[in-house]
Description:
3-stranded antiparallel β-sheet
Amino acid sequence: MSTREGVSFARDSTSATGRAVLADALRKADPVGARAVEHETSWRRNYLEHFRRAVEAGIGDAAAARSVAAEGLRSATEQMRYDEVPLASAIETVPLEQALHTTTLQGGGSPDAEVSIPYRGERLRGAGLVRQLDEWVARGVITQSCSDAVQTVMTHPEWLRLEGDTVVVLGAGAEMGPYRALQRWGATVAALDLPRADVQQRVREVATAGAGRVLVPSRIVTDAGADEGADLVRELPAVADWLDRLADQTGDRLVLGNYCYADGSDHVRVSMAADALATHLLTRRPDTALSFLATPTDVFVVPAEEVGAAEEAYTRGRVGRAARTSVRAVTGGRLLQRNYPPGADPGVCDALVPQQGPNYALAKRLQRWRATDARAHGTVVSLNVAPATRTRSVVKNKALAAAYAGAHRFGVEVFEPATSNSLMAVLLVHDLRTGQPPADEPWQDEARGAAHGGLWTAAYHPRSALGLAAVLGLGSLLP
């Protein structure tokens, strides 16, 4: 593995970087908002309102939304380096320490030729899966368009193998990625994750148990305990070179999927490495498709249907008016706030979670910006809102784990990783095979196919119920 620092911040402070990127993103679309960001003196406390404003600036104005995305990406790229080289030119100018080769792993199983999703101890398929989709829609857990997309793929099982595509899964070992499902279906995957023996063992186990073909970057010289895998942050030029050669060899369209996660500022570093890789591939191969999972704990513009469901939940919810009034009085109005103003069309669901921090918010927003900008230039993009999920990275935070345990009391369903990654992999297949044109406004693209888990249709503003959910869920976590 490389000893280089790789992708890094040009500034010493990650807060200063985030503030600069968001100010630049807003500068053309919302100059007042940009100045508010620049004058913010407590970024880690108050970043939430500025990230919300970066979404609101584009409502009803597609050009403004695309400007926020393009300017934010431009600024973020300018704020980052690869060693001492500007990130924008690193792939083309930094010499390779060594070229990556390809190890091919062939699964020994038979392809699963039917859409199925594991859920609560069962594997749902056919009529049983349709009933569950209908139930999720009725409870406001997923959008109708999400259900429709899954059912479309169910009627086209030949799509599942994604013939003619090589799906590049960045973060192949991630719990939320599509790697396992794609291998069940017999797809071709370029699986990239860290060159660590434990990580690469997981990659191999999925490959050999599956039915597809897995292409793994490998090296001749290694000091990392594994001769397979690559560190995207520290070996960005080598990964780009490997994918260029891989595409020439296979003749397939590349689908670049960013499913990477890291703690703190490293999440921004790996997101920017993936973004630089996307820019490189789109320049070399304009037919490249992109794939992302949007976190539900962000700010989204929500269609009137979801707002209406939230209004009904508020009116007929479990917490009565008297109890709600008492809670508000005791907490100075901080808890159990209404999710949307009555009749909002569209609404704004602000589900940012302070515990996740500004670096997480920036890393995930960068991916949404890339999706918006790429769609505007004709690229096929799959970006779907995934449900809140009990991944290891989430439940290790005790406050979030408790909130997730109590979320069902407020109409939010938290999914298990196996359910989420299967559901989202089906949506990926749908998006790649249907290639839907961009909607009139970017927020409508993000709302389409959303599996938000109930955050969009909940009666209460997510942060105003988070503390109560944590208190109610704490008991289930105690030994």
